[in-house]
Specification:
Elements (H helix, E strand, L loop, with lengths): L1 H31 L4 H5 L50 E2 L2 E2 L5 H6 L3 H5 L12 E12 L3 E4 L4 E3 L6 H15 L10 H19 L9 E9 L4 E4 L2 E3 L47 E5 L4 E20 L3 E14 L3 E2 L7 E3 L4 E11 L15 E7 L3 E14 L3 E5 L4 E5 L4 E20 L3 E14 L3 E4 L9 E4 L4 E11 L6 E2 L2 H11 L20 E7 L3 E14 L3 E5 L10 E5 L4 E11 L2 E6 L3 E13 L10 H8 E3 L32 H6 L1
Length: 677
């Protein structure tokens, strides 16, 4: 059996060999009778066309820093479709629909008898829409950096919690609304609307005061406010956020077009042959600020509409915007840097508020004496609520401590550049009726409360012996506090009218569980030209509330100590220090479509719009305005005295403290005593 397998393998091999031999013979014969063998021996060059490659874009180096530049979301201000003349879906009935009479029907002359032969359709009642959202972003980024071979250690720890608590308490006293508990029931919401209106009314006539802080306050109150207010001034156009963002390194949106040329470029450079020293640009860059906090909310509320809103009780309407910016930005900078380019830009604070009323589109009145002969009623037992309760809170602590010395290289440290963002966008589209009866009262309120609190007290000190002859820049300010709020009332109903007897009678019947027996309300001019009415009856209250509370709190008090390298001083080093350029941004927009185009109330009517804008500034010198070098030196200890002793040729105990790097008696150093002295 084994020999058979071997024989078979040999046979296969011989067969393959024979096949290869035949292929070789065929190729030889083909070459002899190939008519184009001369062409194949000397082939002509292939025809080729030059390809022009145009690549005008240069690839940049890898850049891991992608700064977040928030852009204010657009506020869409749609005019309600029914008011703009766009027909809504109509409920089909026998012989027509529950819509306005078209011109063709009028020309055909439909008889009252045909109009009366209708079948009452079934209408689904609307439901409540309620959203409670609490967005919180918290970040603690307190860095401790010690680089540069200085051999120092600092025990200076400044506690800013008491100062931050002071700013928060003063802001809450001015904000009026303060810490508002979440309103979870119709009674609580009604009390909130009424109570807020009373507090805002009382505050608008008084003066705002905060102990220890300078307060600039503006308030406006009227039944209707219109226009754009910037820090208490009525302006034509609102400022643009992009123009005020603290971003000195912002790149242009349109990159420069590279210059194309066929000529060779000139390349400059240097070549070092053999052994020798290589020059290195010695620099120290420190960035401990550039933090961004963003809260953004956009609401479009179009949940319930009607041509006529008839309220048995009171009609309360309130639009309120409360904006507060609080900041404390006082810095201490070493006199050793007085000759450098020190930039202490003031903190910018903007309160921007916009009130706008979009009137309903005017439609051509129907020239007809026809009024509805029937109606279809649906009922909501109890209260109907349209509530958006949104709270956004961003807290960031970025208090960095750094001890820096220049070495023989380029040093770059980023201890900030953090971003915290909360964002929400709502579009609520619901129902439309011809007539809405409310057995209780109507509470319609849009409330926006925006708060920014910034503590940015920086300490930049130098220990003895620090000096520099290189270029340098120090930037400790340039912060931005930005509040923008807008309330747009679409389809403003105007004044509330007293209720006629026909509506009162209909409401009485509905409250007793009966259909209206008196149809006088059908002859309201708002219903002219309608075959029938789509009617909604709410036995309780109608509550519409959009409540937005936005808060940004940032603590960015940095402590920087400058020293010389213990082994090899680098006085020619370039220094760049930035401890500010923070941005606290609040953006809120509400587009509220009024429920009724025409409103009748059996009780009282209250309509008010209130704007409060305030700026709180603490101007006290940081740490009493003491010498930053003295504060830093008292808190610095040496890790090794031998490293920091200047080579003067004198005995160790005879070295003057003012020569080179000096030692400090740390036994009596008390940083807290220095801060409060």
């Amino acid at each position: 059996m084994y020999s058979a397998k071997i024989t078979e393998a040999i046979a296969h091999f011989i067969g393959l060999f024979e096949i290869s031999t035949e292929e070789a013979r065929l190729r030889e014969v083909h070459d002899k009778f190939d008519p184009d063998r001369e062409i194949h021996k000397d082939p002509k060059e292939l025809v080729s066309a030059p390809v022009k490659v145009h690549a005008p874009y240069d690839l940049d180096d890898f850049n891991p820093d992608i700064p977040y530049k928030p852009v204010g979301p657009d506020i869409f201000m749609p005019i309600p479709g029914g008011y703009a003349g766009v027909s809504f879906p109509e409920y089909p009935i026998f012989g027509g629909s529950l819509g306005r009479v078209s011109s063709e029907v009028i020309l055909q002359g439909s008889s009252p008898r045909s109009a009366a032969q209708v079948v009452e359709p079934h209408i689904n009642p609307p439901g409540s829409v309620v959203l409670y959202s609490n967005q919180t972003a918290e970040l603690s980024d307190n860095d401790v950096v010690s680089v540069g071979g200085h051999g120092l250690k600092s025990s200076l720890q400044i506690d800013n919690s008491a100062t931050m608590a002071e700013l928060i308490d003063a802001t809450q006293k001015i904000s009026l609304l303060g810490e508002t508990d979440v309103a979870g029931s119709s009674d609580t919401i009604a009390s909130l609307v009424v109570g807020t209106a009373e507090r805002l009314d009382a505050f608008s006539t008084g003066e705002a005061e905060a102990e220890g802080l300078s307060v600039s306050h503006f308030s406006a109150r009227a039944s209707t406010l219109e226009g754009i207010y910037v820090n208490g001034v009525l302006v034509e156009e609102a400022p643009v956020l992009k123009d005020h963002l603290p971003d000195p390194d912002e790149v242009s949106d349109t990159p420069d077009e590279p210059e194309l040329s066929n000529e060779g470029g000139v390349v400059e450079g240097g070549i070092a042959y053999g052994e020798g020293a290589v020059s290195v640009d010695i620099s120290v860059e420190l960035a401990t600020g550039s933090n961004t906090l963003v809260n953004s909310v956009v609401i479009t509320s179009n949940w319930l509409q009607a041509e006529v809103l008839a309220v048995a009780g009171d009609h309360v309407e309130l639009n309120a915007i409360v904006q507060i910016n609080t900041h404390y930005d006082s810095d201490l900078i070493s006199s050793a840097l007085s000759g450098d380019n020190i930039e202490q830009h003031a903190t910018q604070a903007f309160n921007v508020a916009m009130f706008k009323h979009v009137e309903p589109a005017q439609t051509t009145p129907t020239e007809t004496g026809d009024f509805p002969k029937a109606w279809a009623i649906t009922e909501v037992k109890g209260d109907l609520m349209m509530v958006n309760w949104l709270q956004q809170f961003a807290f960031m602590s970025d208090e960095d401590t750094a001890i820096l010395a220049a070495s023989g290289s380029k040093l770059s440290i980023v201890g900030g550049d953090n971003t915290a963002a909360n964002q929400i966008s709502l579009l609520e589209l619901g129902y439309r009726f011809d007539l809405i009866f409310v057995g209780g009262s109507v509470f319609d309120a849009n409330i926006i409360q925006q708060t920014n609190i910034l503590l940015d007290n920086d300490l930049i000190g130098a220990v003895g012996g620090f000096h520099t002859s290189g270029a340098g820049s120090v930037s400790t300010g340039g912060n931005l506090l930005w509040n923008y709020a807008g309330i747009v009332e679409a389809g403003s109903a105007g004044p509330v009218n007293p209720m006629s007897q026909g509506y009162l009678s209909a409401l009485q019947d509905l409250s007793e569980g009966k259909k209206p027996s008196d149809g006088d309300f059908l002859y309201d001019p708002a219903f002219a030209g309608l075959h029938g009415l789509r009617v909604l009856y709410i036995s309780g209250d109608l509550i519409s509330l959009n409540y937005i509370q936005q808060t940004n709190i940032l603590g960015d008090s940095d402590q920087v100590t400058l020293a010389m390298n213990a082994l090899a001083a680098r006085p020619d080093a370039d220094w760049t220090i930035s401890t500010g350029s923070n941005a606290l941004l609040n953006y809120a927009g509400i587009v509220d479509v009024d429920t009724g185009k025409t409103i009748y109330a059996g009780g009282g009517a209250y309509s008010d719009e209130v704007l409060i804008q305030a700026e709180l500034v603490k101007n006290d010198p940081y740490l009493g305005g003491q010498d930053p070098d003295a504060l830093v030196s008292e808190a610095v200890i040496f890790l090794g005295d031998d490293m920091l002793t200047a080579d003067t040729g004198q005995p160790q105990d005879q070295i003057s403290p003012n020569q080179g790097m000096h030692t400090i008696d740390t036994a009596s150093a008390d940083p807290m005593h220095s801060m409060v002295a």
